[in-house]
Design a protein that fits this description.
By secondary structure, the chain is mainly α. It contains four helices and three strands. It starts with 10 loop residues before the first helix and ends with a helix.
């Protein structure tokens, strides 16, 4: 799957669309980048890679799955 990318995209651009920085992941989750890093440290959100600048990257699919789980938990808390 890593080799697939859209028309006009380089492999690097396609790959970066699949990975998010802590700030980008936080935006999708409604959290700060520090909170995303905390989730990684406690094992709730696995980091997929680390850049040369030591920035942890997260798979977009992992982040969206966590966002869905958080939304379901929140919804369940309001209906329980």
């Amino acid at each position: 799957m890593l080799g697939r990318h859209g028309p006009g995209q380089t492999w690097e651009e396609a790959t970066m669309e699949r990975f998010l920085t802590p700030a980008e992941a936080g935006h999708l989750l409604g959290l700060t980048a520090a909170s995303v890093r905390r989730l990684e440290r406690v094992g709730a959100l696995p980091a997929a890679a680390t850049t040369d600048g030591r920035i942890r990257l997260f798979r977009r699919a992992d982040v969206t799955a966590l966002a869905r789980r958080r939304a379901l938990q929140k919804k369940g808390a309001h209906h329980g």
